[in-house]
Amino acid sequence: MKKKLVIFTDLDSTLLDHRTYAFEKGREALELIQKENIPLIFCTSKTRRETEFWRQKMNNYHPFIVENGAAIYIPEGYFPFHVPGARNFSPYHLMELGEPYEKLRQFLLFCRLHFAPSVRGFGDMNLEEIMFLTGLSADMASLAKQREYDEPFIVQEEKELSSIQKEAARAGYKILKGSRFYHLAGHNDKGQAVKLLKDFYTQFLGSILTAGIGDSHNDLAMLKAVDRPFLVRKADGSYDPQVKVPGLWFASGIGPEGWKEAVLSLLKNLE
């Protein structure tokens, strides 16, 4: 029996351009995925509200994973069975894997008070600062600020970052490195969320083959959890040296150009 393909993808600096957030260079592959009715799962550090915006822009109606694996949103009626561990959050079934945002904020404030005075999270920034750091419009920066489980942050001093990482490990939190920010997260990561959805898709479709496309350290767990991992070049043309996965396929393109290359290669090899 032929395995059915399911693709998990990062958004920032992967399907979306690092500077412009455009996805035009990936459109050919995106349309091919839709034509072949292949589930494309956004697996991102973005918030629910941001991800909903991009789902609508790309006509994507599949489940999605937000804030570095902290929550899975499954459209109501998507799977023809009860989703265990999910609660109703209309129009979705919601699986929460991460810590509440308020707890993460308290931890970051503790770090600033005791040993990391230069640390600043999204909760400390106004819209103008987020717009400056990300290149987002005011509307999109507002959606990015509506965090529920994950706190992006910047820190000036390397020794302060090391102290935050040690304290986070002691407290049971994780520090992940994204394309622009460090991220403070709970026990969750993208890989845990991917594995849960893989189980649901196997129950739904039978035998499946999974692929994952990312660009940075916070995609590592996702890439480890799939059968076919792909890494695109970062905006400066480099590959993230922290992403080491057996069988990793390196796309030569940057961002959405590399994303298209990964998808077309994947589909060609399946044929």
Structural account:
With 271 residues, the protein is of the alpha/beta class. It folds into two domains: 4-97 and 189-270, HAD superfamily/HAD-like (Rossmann fold), CATH 3.40.50; 101-185, Putative mannosyl-3-phosphoglycerate phosphatase, domain 2 (Threonyl-tRNA Synthetase, Chain A, domain 2). The chain contains nine helices and 13 strands. It has helices at 27-35, 48-57, 101-114, 127-134, 138-144, 158-171, 190-205, 220-225, 255-270, and strands at residues 4-9, 40-43, 64-66, 71-75, 87-89, 92-96, 120-121, 151-154, 174-177, 182-185, 208-214, 228-233, 249-254. The strands form two sheets. The protein has a nine-stranded mixed β-sheet, with helices on both faces. Helix 1 runs parallel beside helix 9. The radius of gyration is 18 Å and the shape is globular. It starts with a strand and ends with a helix.
Query: What does the oligomeric state look like here?
Result: single chain
Number of helices, counting only DSSP H or I runs of 4 residues or more: 9
Shape: globular
Order of helices and strands, N to C? EHEHEEEEHEHHEHEEHEHEEH
Give the radius of gyration. 18 Å
Largest sheet, if any? 9 strands, mixed
